[in-house]
Design brief:
- The complex is a heterodimer.
- By secondary structure, chain A is α+β, with helices and mostly antiparallel strands.
- Chain A is built from 13 helices and 22 strands.
- In chain A, the strands form five sheets. Chain A has a seven-stranded antiparallel beta sheet with strand order 14-13-12-18-17-16-15.
- Chain B has four helices and six strands.
- In chain B, the strands form two sheets. Chain B has a three-stranded antiparallel beta sheet with strand order 1-2-3.
- The longest helix of chain B is centred in the middle third of the chain and has 30 residues.
- Chain B starts with 9 loop residues before the first helix and ends with a helix.
- The chains are: A alpha+beta, B alpha+beta.
- Strand 4 of chain A pairs antiparallel with strand 4 of chain B, so a sheet runs across the interface.
């Protein structure tokens, strides 16, 4: 085919026309033609962008080129295209043009098309047909319940009541957010006690950072039930709006066992999963598979819901070289905060000589010392807590000092492995590894702490050698469990 | 034994121009703040900060491009793209070819002056880049990667 196309002139009319109209309005209202000139320049840039952006269609791929300030040439193989949509708006239907939207499975543009080109109706249909015929047939993984598989009397693997939803809403959230909510609640109470009136600002902060998210979580996760049906997981939850989501196990890239600080105190944890293709609006964070369950029930829950992710790998802590790194980090941080504290004290004394002389040095020195000590404690705890294990099929990583997460990642699901090492880390033979996966929210990065560089290079090699393999999904039944 | 390739020596000049532009921005800001210093006391400190940043960027212009050039290594094999780069912190990135969805060749105005381009490799989990390649080399690598990806997909289709 090898034909090149530009965007339909309607795009030019829209972009340039809008710029000119807005420019005229702004110029008239501001009383200065300089504003009109700015918009005329922007209109000219839009014209050049339209003129110099082309799409060339080949037999098995297309190339989008744009030559504005930067020259960009993008090649997209049809086999990598996830979906092709032909969208006709009101004007498109009237005047005969179609917006062709091409999506690939990219975390960069998970929420919008990779390529959008406006073309005459016939050309758009022709190109869409070419792209669709060039794609490999994809297994239908749409998340709808398969009626023939759904048996009305099937029992959920886990079901949770209203109290569980409250517990999850309060203790399942990030500890920092919970502390922020408590902080603002305390400020509200204290301001009332000392001034006999409520601080509107603190109330608003408490409501927005604490109350609404907790209530929202309770409403969203009320009546929570999770089913394992063959090779699928089905989630049904919600007190006002009922969310019914089904997805294939093959779309699960990683399973996460999350333990917030308060959840650990009460001996509970929850299971989440990094799933490709879950509607990001419904599940704006990593989808919850179970709410807070007792730790003793975790093995049964994993066995019932994710037996494919069973892993017996030996976990190891960060090597002693990391302690050396912590010492130097603390030293550098101490020097940096000391310099900042000195500057702050100087400015304080200069600005307010009366109060500054007495308070500046003690306050700034205390703040600097607290930052240095807390940082050292945090890093030392991370040395004691972070773990890494691999068994050839999975990478298991435990991170988090305050809120702990244990990720079980299937090797072939890792898209990019990246290790990073400072000069001090290199001297100790260690580096920090980051695994990039595709998830419901676009891209998920899993940080693995500091481990031996050779070991991390071996993991990278393994992600390459395992990249073509698929997860062996077990056609499991369901086993009913209750969260006691 | 993997044969890592290094960057084109012209890359250092392209990097220097980028740093010089940043230096110029801070220098201009410092000059503007200096002339406005009488408006508010804080602008004096802002001017000092801008001067410090301009001096820092000038030093980096001299030092960093050589270090980046010395550290930068990449190779493309039949199953992966492997890039090592960095100045103080060294990053090693590995992308299995099977994961590549899209390959892009990008050449900004500074790179175009020196006949250089970047190859941007998009996967489902993020983007990896091979930077400061000669334009023909970048296009050749992009063609090579597209051909390999095409072969992998056709192989999967035949299975």
């Amino acid at each position: 085919m090898n034909e090149s196309y530009r965007n339909h002139p309607s795009v030019l009319v829209k972009n340039v026309g809008v710029m000119i109209v807005v420019g005229v309005i702004v110029a008239m209202s501001m009383g200065s033609y300089l504003w009109a000139l700015i918009f005329i320049v922007l209109a000219a840039v839009s014209f050049i962008a339209w003129l110099r952006t082309t799409m060339t269609v080949f037999e098995d791929h297309l190339v989008v080129e744009s030559r504005i300030i930067s020259v960009k040439t993008r090649t997209i193989q049809y086999d990598k295209v996830a979906s092709v949509n032909e969208v006709k708006g009101v004007f498109g239907r009237m005047f005969g043009w179609t917006s062709l939207r091409i999506n690939i499975n990219s975390s960069q543009n998970y929420a919008r098309p990779e390529v959008t080109f406006v073309l005459p109706d016939d050309k758009a249909s022709e190109i869409a047909a070419i792209i669709k015929s060039g794609r490999v047939a994809v297994e239908d993984t749409s998340d709808k319940v398969m009626d023939e598989e759904y048996v009305p009397d099937i029992q959920p693997a886990f079901s949770f009541g209203f109290l569980d939803a409250i517990l999850f809403g309060v203790f399942g959230t990030d500890t920092v957010k919970l502390f922020a909510a408590v902080f603002w609640a305390a400020i509200t109470v204290v301001s009332f006690i000392f001034s006999a009136e409520f601080s509107i600002f603190s109330i608003l902060m408490f409501v927005s950072s604490g109350l609404f998210p907790i209530i929202g979580s309770i409403v969203r996760h009320g009546n929570f039930r999770v089913y394992r049906i063959g090779k699928k997981i089905r989630l049904v939850h919600g007190m006002l709006t009922v969310y019914d989501t089904t997805f294939e196990l093959s779309r699960v890239n990683a399973v996460c066992v999350k333990r917030s600080l308060f959840a650990r105190m009460i001996g509970r944890c929850c299971i989440q999963a990094e799933v490709v293709g879950i509607n990001a609006e419904q599940n704006s964070t990593t989808p919850t598979i179970t709410m807070l369950i007792p730790e003793s029930q975790l093995p049964r829950a994993m066995d019932a819901l994710f037996p494919e992710f069973a892993s017996d790998c030996e976990m190891s802590r960060q090597p002693s070289g990391y302690l050396n790194l912590i010492m130097f980090r603390t030293l550098y941080l101490t020097l940096a905060v000391a310099a900042a504290a000195f500057l702050a004290a100087y400015l304080w004394i200069k600005g307010e000589p009366d109060s500054g002389s007495a308070l500046a040095i003690p306050v700034c020195a205390s703040a600097a010392a607290a930052i240095a000590v807390l940082s050292f404690v945090y890093w030392y705890l991370s040395y004691r807590i972070f773990e890494l294990g691999e068994d050839g099929r999975f990478i298991v990583s435990t991170t988090g000092v305050i809120d702990r997460s244990t990720y079980i990642v299937h090797y072939p699901k890792v898209q990019i492995t990246s290790t990073r090492a400072s000069p001090r880390a290199r001297r100790n033979g260690i580096a920090r590894c980051t695994l990039s996966l595709l998830s419901s929210g676009g891209r998920t990065k899993i940080y693995c702490g500091f481990f031996e560089s050779d070991r991390l290079d071996g993991m990278a090699d393994r992600t390459v050698s395992e990249s073509g393999k698929k997860l062996t999904v077990i056609n499991a039944g369901t086993s009913a469990c209750t969260a006691d | 034994m993997t044969d890592y390739r290094t960057l084109d020596p012209r890359s250092m000049r392209s990097m220097r121009i980028g740093y010089l532009l940043a230096t110029a921005v801070f220098a201009v800001a410092a000059v503007v703040l200096f002339f406005l210093r009488d408006l508010h006391e804080a602008l004096i400190y802002a001017c000092i900060g801008a001067v410090a940043l301009a001096v820092l960027m000038a030093v980096l212009t001299i030092v960093f491009p050589k270090i980046y050039y010395d550290h930068y290594r990449y190779f493309i094999s039949e199953d992966r793209v492997d890039v090592r780069r960095g100045i103080i912190f060294l990053t090693h990135t590995v992308v299995p070819l099977e994961r590549i969805h899209q390959v892009e060749v990008v050449s900004g105005p500074i790179n175009r002056m020196y006949g250089l381009a970047d190859v941007s490799i998009t996967t489902a989990g993020g983007v990896a880049k091979i930077e400061y390649l000669e334009t023909e080399e970048a296009e050749r690598i992009a063609d090579e990667l597209n051909a390999i990806v095409d072969a992998i997909v056709k192989g999967q289709r035949n299975e």
